[in-house]
Amino acid sequence: MANKNQYVGSSVDDLLKETGELAEVNAVALKRVIAWKIEQKMNAEHLSKTKMAALMRTSRSALDRLLDPTNTSVTLHTLDNAARALGKSLRIELA
């Protein structure tokens, strides 16, 4: 008996590649992790959003966009500013 569902046995990544959604899903997942890590570090350092924005030399609304897990349009400059404000460095790797 032939399998009528073409996706049975394939991975989610394969399905997302076929539908052209893999890049967007990966971007959202990565952004969620970045936003979560920044918020965790801010909480550990007892930094308010206002103070964090000041350390980054940006606006509170720009920080809100950075912390929005669904907003994937963040610049490397903003990520680097956030990392430096938290006493960290930004590393990006192509894998």
The outline comes out as elongated
Number of helices: 5
CATH names the topology as 434 Repressor (Amino-terminal Domain)
Mean pLDDT score: 88
CATH architecture tag: Orthogonal Bundle
Provide the β-strand percentage band: under 5%
Number of strands: 0
The oligomeric status of these chains comes to: single chain
Number of domains: 1
Percent of residues in helices: 55-70%
GO molecular function: DNA binding
Protein name: Fis family transcriptional regulator
InterPro entries: Lambda_DNA-bd_dom_sf
Organism: Pseudidiomarina atlantica
Can you lay out the helices and strands and say which pair or pack?
Layout: H1 12-19, H2 22-44, H3 49-56, H4 60-67, H5 76-85
Provide an overview of this structure.
This protein is an all-alpha fold and 95 residues long. It has a single domain, classed as 434 Repressor (Amino-terminal Domain), CATH 1.10.260. Helix content is 60%, strand content 0%. It contains 5 helices and no strands. GO terms for molecular function: DNA binding. This is Fis family transcriptional regulator.
Summarize the structure.
This protein has one domain (12-85): 434 Repressor (Amino-terminal Domain). Helix 3 packs across helix 4 (60-67).
Please tag this protein with its features:
95 residues, 5 helices, 434 Repressor (Amino-terminal Domain), mainly alpha, single chain
